[in-house]
Design brief:
Elements (H helix, E strand, L loop, with lengths): L1 E7 L10 H7 L4 E6 L5 H14 L7 E6 L10 H20 L7 E6 L9 H10 L4 E6 L4 H9 L10 E5 H4 L9 E5 L14 E7 L7 E6 H19 L4 E7 L5
Parallel strand pairs: 1-4, 1-5, 2-3, 2-4, 6-7
Antiparallel strand pairs: 7-10, 8-9, 8-10
Helix pairs in contact: 3-4
Length: 254
């Protein structure tokens, strides 16, 4: 039986780590690092910084690295592309977990929180279903949504109203019914432009919690092009971008 820790490391700032996460880091013997390419070296560097900062002096550990598979873009069948990606990731996980020695505890460092827009838990369940004997524990982390609202100094929800978390692809299908606040993640196509005629405020953030952090807020109709231009420039400069935003009817709160 292999013991695995799934540790949420927060949304960019090493200070976001919880006490529980720090304790979990010091239980692990092996850390699995998935390399997303040269453009995202900063994500790997942050994980290394966290290990150096929080693991107790004298405690030995090792790193096992592998290339993280990329999803095929601009395909007709989105769901099929996700299924293919998760199969590829499962094969990588199985290869990494196969290197864990008897008596060692392995750990995956998950950006944000493992329960929000992250595939690690689903993939590990697939590994278990495939016959590998392992137990895993989940340590929650501060999500990108929490970090975004904190940096903009706004509540996530309006009083007595629902919040929906969705993707840019879903937003392009139209504003969700029955909600006044929508958090949008995984939007590569500036999908807020599809609802620019709605009476909305937007609270946008990129690289939140990192030295590269960018924040823009205001009436959507007034700042949409500023966000699009800023986002494109940041992606060009860094080679990648990680952003999210909250759209809201009726201002800051009910």
């Amino acid at each position: 039986m292999k013991d695995i820790l799934i540790i949420g490391i927060g949304a960019g700032d090493p200070d976001y780590l919880t006490t529980q996460a720090i304790k979990a880091l010091n239980r692990a013997d092996v850390f699995f690092i998935l390399d997303k390419g040269e453009a995202k070296d900063k994500l790997i560097a942050l994980r290394r910084l966290i290990l150096e900062r929080y693991i107790e002096p004298g405690r030995c550990y090792r790193l096992l690295e592998a290339t993280n598979p990329e999803r095929e873009r601009n395909v007709v069948d989105y769901d099929a592309s996700i299924d293919s990606l998760n199969r590829d990731k499962q094969a990588v996980f199985e290869q990494l977990l196969g290197q864990l020695q008897d008596g060692e505890t392995g750990a995956f460092l998950v950006w944000g929180d493992p329960a929000l827009y992250d595939s690690t838990l689903r993939i590990l369940d697939g590994v278990i279903a495939g016959g590998m004997a392992l137990e895993y524990e989940v340590i929650p982390g501060i999500t990108s949504v929490q970090a975004l609202t904190a940096r903009h100094r706004i509540p996530l929800n309006q009083i007595g109203r629902a919040v929906q978390i969705t993707t840019g692809r879903r937003l392009r299908e139209g504003w969700p019914e029955g909600v006044d606040s929508v958090v949008v993640m995984l939007d590569a196509q500036d999908s807020y432009r599809q609802v620019i005629d709605e009476d909305l405020n937007i609270y946008w953030g990129a690289y939140v919690g990192t030295p590269d952090e960018i924040l823009i807020s205001g009436r959507l109709a007034e700042v949409a092009e500023q966000i699009a231009t800023t986002r494109a420039a940041a992606r060009q400069a860094n080679g990648w971008i990680m952003d999210s935003y909250l759209l809201r009817r009726g201002g800051r709160e009910a």
